[in-house]
UniProtKB/TrEMBL annotation:
Stated family: Belongs to the ROK (NagC/XylR) family.
PROSITE patterns the record matches: ROK
Origin: domain of life: Bacteria
A single Gene Ontology CC term: cytoplasm
Entries under PANTHER family matching the protein: BIFUNCTIONAL UDP-N-ACETYLGLUCOSAMINE 2-EPIMERASE_N-ACETYLMANNOSAMINE KINASE, ROK (REPRESSOR, ORF, KINASE) FAMILY
Protein name (record): Glucokinase
Keywords assigned: ATP-binding, Kinase, Nucleotide-binding, Transferase
Keyword ATP-binding assigned: yes
EC id: 2.7.1.2
GO terms, molecular function: ATP binding; glucokinase activity
GO biological process: one example: glycolytic process
Matches recorded under NCBIfam families: ROK_glcA_fam (TIGR00744)
Amino acid sequence: MMDKKLLGIDLGGTTVKFAILTQNGEIQQKWSIDTNILDEGTHIVPDIVESINHHLALYEMKPEQFIGIGMGTPGSVDITEGTVIGAYNLNWKTLQPVKELIEKGTGIPFFIDNDANVAALGERWKGAGENDPDVVFVTLGTGVGGGIVMNGQLLHGVAGCAGEIGHITVDPDGFECTCGKRGCLETVASATGVVRVARQLAEEYAGGSELKARLDNGEDITSKDVFELAAKNDDLALRVVDKVTFYLGLACGNIGNTLNPSAIIIGGGVSAAGEFLRSRVEAYFEQFTFPQVRNSTKIKLAELGNEAGVIGAASLAR
C-alpha cells in the first residue's frame, strides 16, 4: 500500500499543472499543459484525461498503482458530487461533472476542492505550516483567497464559503468589490488592489515621488513596482505599502482573534515582496490581537510557491 502514488492537478486559467507524488508528499514527476478554454471550456476535462493517460503510459504505470487523483480548481465546488460551476476564467458557466468524467476516463478515484483551499492544504502539509493541525492560508494574487485548516480538517462552511478571506470587510466606506459589497480586503490587498490604493493616495499627494510621477504620466504600474519603489524609500510608495499592510494586519488580527491558528501563512504573487511585506503585516497584526494570540499565532511567508497547488491537491486523495 505504501508504494501507491498520489496524482495532484492544479487547474488554472492558463495552465494545468500535474504531479505524481509519494504518500509522503514528495514530487516524483511533474508536467503541465495549456488550458484550452474555447467552446465554453468543453476541452478542459478531456485534455486532462488524455494527458494523464498519456503520461501513465509514458512512465509505464497503471491506474491501480494510484490511491487517487486530487484537483484544485477555480469556481464553486461541490466536493461531494465532484462538480464545478461559475469558474469564469475557465469559461465554465454551466455545471461541470468533473469527478464523473475523470474517474470514467482514467479509472482512478478522484477528489476535488477549490484552488485556494488546496493551496492551503499544500502549505500546511509540506510548507510553512509544518503539518500543524491549525493553519490559515491567505493568497494575494489577482484576487485574495484563503483556506482554513482546523484540527487537521479543511473548513468548508454550510455553503462552501469558509475561508473567503478576501471578503473580510476592512473599510466599510471603501472601494466596491466584485462580490457586491464595499471595503473587502480583496479591493485593497490584491495585485490590482495595491495599484488602486496607489492611485487613490497619489491624487492627494504633493511631495516628490517617482511613483507619483509615473502615475501622473499615465504609466501602467503593478503591485511589484509599488513594493520595489517602497524598498528604495519612495515616500508615496511607502505610504501605499503602509496602508495595504494595515488592512492585511487588521484582517489577520481578526482571523487570529477568532481562530488562533499556529500560523497565518501569506502566499500568492504579492507575497513575493517577502520580508518587507511580512514584517509590516506582523506589526499591525500585533496591534490588533490580544496577548495570548499575539504570542502564539505567527505570521509567515508561504514556502512552496507554484507547487502548493499540486501538493495540496494530491493530499485530497490521502
